[in-house]
Amino acid sequence: MFNPNGNEIITLAGRDYQVQPLNVGKLAATPPALRIIHGARAEVFQLRDTSTNTLLALKVMRPPFRKPALIRNRALLAQLSNVRGFEACQLTYFTPQSHPNDLAHYPDLEYASLMPWIGGMTWSSVLDSRTQFPINDSTSWKLAYDLLVSLTVLERNHTAHCDLGSNNVIVDLQNPQTTLIDFDEVYWPDAPVPAGLPTGTPGYRRGTQNQWKASGDRFATAILVAELLGWRNAQIQNRSSGESFFSEAEYNDLSSARYLELQEFLDQLDSKLGSLFRKAWNAHSTEVCPSIQDWRRALAEAQHWKAIPLDYRDAFQINWSAVKHDLANLSGQPSGPALAIASPPLVNGQAAGPQTQPSPSSAAVVNPDTPHPVASQPTPPTIGCMILFALMVLGLLGWWILFVPH
Ligand SMILES: Nc1ncnc2c1ncn2[C@@H]1O[C@H](COP(=O)(O)OP(=O)(O)O)[C@@H](O)[C@H]1O
Ligand SMILES: [Mg+2]
């Protein structure tokens, strides 16, 4: 087992790292000797690079999750890692091809990943603490809006995190900002369909429907934004069920008391925000939940901003040809992962893939309010309607020329 002691020096790819004893933004009561964070699929260690002093997270997958398919997203994540809020996407994967010596020494590191350590606290620890980490109105708005700007980056690129929840959002309460982590289940158009389709995070999903789709983050976004906005209120803090505000079972109870309290709070904060939350809570699938952009616009309006402020992140476009090229290379490796490219999944009955993507350099400044070019292109049924309409106009004109006395 990969089971280093606190302060032990380990060597990976020729570099020395010290395993850090942790007290990571958890409650003060956490024993300081903690050095492993237990996730659902992995155990995470904090390492310090002894030559640069930088902190890193080493994510060691539990045996059933050590799968070659984990690296299918690496080219996409490498691009995202340049964007604020996605720093944890800068990953080095330990594969039999890339790190044979390290894996000979530590076989448990197969498909482990090394990434920057994100300072702050998981949003789940804040929720779990109830009133211990109160936030003021300004921090509450900023955290919610910052999260929405990050999620807009994914939405504009038809991509979804698919495991969005309080454990996978790290918040910095001093300098209010959010960072997303844990992109193992990310959906992107043309990605190979995973063997097990992600069904979302307990506490942030309704039932266990497939969430591996472009709209997969919408329900979880509504819950996270409601939590972040509600956290300015001590009564709401006191009502948290634990690491998520709602319990998993509550989503089948459309009139749960906890829901009604948060709903009432949001209605008072701003009626538009309240109605978006109501819509999400009553939605039977993620497709009919409000989009990320709906939330972003509503937050801007609630703060009386004249327009949605542009963020440099709004200009970010994924270079899909680089992502597909890398995937083709992976599939071609003799001992590499079996990564059949699936036909594009359907969203609302239509292929969800990006069709023409501008290169990152041509993206310049993009209004986040402008629909994505793909969405504004005429679809086949629209073209059919236009032809039918033209024929009707011609028919009417002919009838007028022939039969109406001039
Ligand atoms: N880059 C990181 N920086 C700081 N903490 C992290 C990082 N990656 C993971 N963690 C911590 O480890 C926990 C589990 O990691 P995660 O990638 O979410 O694993 P899992 O796939 O098992 O959910 C997270 O909830 C968070 O507390
Ligand atoms: Mg996680």
Please sum up the structure shown:
The protein is globular. The chain is an alpha+beta fold and 406 residues long.
Task: Provide structural commentary.
The chain has 406 residues and is α+β, with helices and mostly antiparallel strands. It folds into 2 domains: 108 residues, Phosphorylase Kinase, domain 1, CATH 3.30.200; 192 residues, Transferase(Phosphotransferase) domain 1 (Transferase(Phosphotransferase), domain 1, Orthogonal Bundle), CATH 1.10.510. The strands form 3 sheets. Strands 1, 2, 3, 4, 5, 6 and 7 form a 7-stranded antiparallel sheet that branches. Strand 3 and strand 4 form a beta hairpin. The longest helix is centred in the C-terminal third of the chain and has 24 residues. The chain is globular. The relative contact order is 0.10.
Low-confidence stretches: 335-382
Largest sheet: 7 strands, antiparallel
- Report mean pLDDT, rounded to a whole number: 85
The CATH architecture of the largest domain can be given as Orthogonal Bundle
Kindly state the percentage of residues in helix. Answer: 25-40%
Query: What is the helix tally?
Result: 12
Q: How do the strands and helices of this protein lay out in sequence?
A:
Elements: E1 9-12, E2 15-19, E3 37-38, E4 42-49, E5 55-61, H1 74-80, E6 92-93, H2 100-105, E7 113-116, E8 121-122, H3 123-128, H4 137-156, E9 169-172, E10 177-180, H5 218-230, H6 234-238, H7 257-269, H8 271-282, H9 292-302, H10 320-332, E11 346-347, E12 350-351, H11 373-376, H12 380-403
Antiparallel strand pairs: 1-2, 2-4, 3-4, 4-5, 5-7, 6-7, 8-9, 9-10, 11-12
Helix pairs in contact: 4-5, 4-9, 5-7, 5-8, 7-8
Bound molecules: adenosine-5'-diphosphate and magnesium ion (MG).
